[in-house]
Write a structure and sequence with these properties.
By secondary structure, the protein is an alpha/beta fold. A four-stranded mixed beta sheet has the order 3-2-1-4, covered by helices on one side. The protein has a two-stranded parallel sheet with strand order 5-6. Helix 2 crosses helix 3 and helix 3 crosses helix 4. It starts with a strand and ends in a 17-residue tail after the last helix.
Length: 181
């Protein structure tokens, strides 16, 4: 069993989900986001009065107020396989207000898995399926060519989150076409 609640944010309505005992956050999705809730195979029951949800909403309040709350303040338990878990762990290392490329994450994952190289596309798939958006900062990943491609919540939302964090977006561009728009 999983519980859910909603949060009204400056970028739209968010759904938060936790495990049955209310100890771990397992999801945070923007309304209409690609892959919304896809890691939870059971029905989520709405239940607002869970202490973890109060803590997560306070974290989000501080984040959207321009503060820099630490990811470690919340107990996160994203649901996914070993490879995805590894990628999501690396996302948590990206400092607030900074970006990294899919290729940089691929190099780190290759080293972690004792491989010579790894596909940036494989990493992109894991980044795109991040079930705890914003808190696990997948919006901080960009294309090596300066493209803002690849955010399940939409490119405009990615831009807003990066702007909120003070990233200079003049060095980036929105692709005109592609599968990761």
């Amino acid at each position: 069993m999983y519980y859910s609640t909603t949060y009204s944010s400056p970028i739209g309505r968010l759904t938060l989900a936790c495990d049955a005992d209310g100890r771990n956050l397992v999801g945070l999705w923007l309304k209409g986001q690609k892959y919304h809730g896809d890691t939870i195979l059971e029905t989520m029951t709405a239940k607002d009065e869970i202490p973890l949800f109060f803590a997560a909403k306070e974290w989000l309040n501080r984040y959207f107020a321009g503060k820099k709350p630490a990811i470690s303040e919340l107990p996160l338990a994203p649901i996914g396989g070993e490879f995805r878990q590894g990628v999501w762990s690396l996302l948590c290392e990206i400092p607030y207000g900074e970006v990294v490329t899919y290729g940089e994450i691929a190099k780190k994952m290759a080293a972690k898995m004792n491989k010579k190289s790894m596909s940036g596309q494989a990493v992109g798939g894991a980044v795109g399926h991040n079930p705890i958006s914003i808190i696990i900062p997948c919006h901080r990943v960009v294309g090596s060519n300066g493209s803002l491609t690849g955010y399940a919540g939409g490119i405009e939302t990615k831009r807003k989150l990066l702007e909120l964090e003070g990233v200079d977006l003049s060095q980036f561009f929105v692709p005109k076409k592609g599968t990761a728009l």
